[in-house]
Amino acid sequence: MGKPFSSRRILLQLLVLLIAPMSVLAQYTDVINSNRPGLSVSAYAVGRNVVQLEMGLFYEQSDHTLLNTQSDSWGSNFSLRYGLLFERLELNYEGTFQDQDIIYEFFDLKAKRRDFSRNRLGLKYLIYDPYKNPERNKPNLYSWRANHKFQFKNLLPAVSLYAGANFVLGDNPYYPGEPTVSPRVMIATQSRMTPRMVMITNTAYDRIGTDDPELSYIISFSHAFRNPKWSTFLEHQGIQSDRYSDLLLRGGVAYLFNEQLQVDMGLGASFKNTPSRVFVNIGGSYRFDFHKDKLVPIEDQKSNENGGAIKKNSMKKEKRKDRKSRGSGAEDVDLGPSKKQLRKLKKAQKKGNRDDSEIDF
């Protein structure tokens, strides 16, 4: 079985992302930002004190031509996300509970597996956000097209780091013989290609220290329609492990009911037949928004107010000086006619007097 992608190339990508410029800023949005219906994880956290539940049901059919097996699986995947301590820090739990029926054609046998095929807990931290730079995001006031077309500077992504662990509890038939806890690390990036299109990448090294560690990547594109409540996505995933390797493609749509609720539907398939996989899922995401903006300390507010008062007083002094210089004739400046003189001029012109020099100012 050929390797779906080069391990050396993935490690090089990890190194490049690790030495990227860093920042400690984050972004909270007024509208729910869900990772569903795909499996990619965004670079941004949900926001401090925000609790977000993402949950769905799925069905999968797979056939293995070499082993001559057929499989039907039902299950639920879910994610619980919480903005912990800082705007840029997120605690999340991800799980997939699966019920699988397998038919072995060679032996005319049936088997069942039922347990967690994904059960992990981790922290994600945003280390760089290019969209917090006001100079970088100034709009072009003269061109609508310039603000909506693709620009190479948009490839510069927001970057976050993830560290967590997988948990295998009891006698799990999906991971026989694995230790109870195994580490997982990941780099997630997010680029806003255009105002309507976002690209997300995930590069993960999973089940570290086990007999079958796993290296994987995800590249996902999301696009919003003219009606912003509707969006679509296309996602590609590569998995490399001695236990299981594959290349997968997913797609789907999502609908935003309101600022806190999104529903979605997706489907996908594998590129090979050992096994071939076809799956469909439906689900939704709901946000409990307890986020509050941090208040500016009173000392800082007074400082700003005093600074503003000093500036206003300075402007008033300048105006007074200007008025004095004009009244005393200290400066030989032509200030032009006053409002009263202009009214007198217009009145004279209406009476038919075209010679402005005859008007006594």
Automatic annotation (TrEMBL):
Annotated Pfam families: Phenol_MetA_deg
InterPro entries: FApF (IPR025737)
Protein's name in the database: Transporter
Biased composition (Basic and acidic residues): 352-361
Compositional bias ranges of the Basic residues kind: 313-326, 340-351
Record bears the keyword Phosphoprotein: no
Signal peptide, first to last residue: 1-26
Protein keywords: Signal
Region ranges (Disordered): 299-361
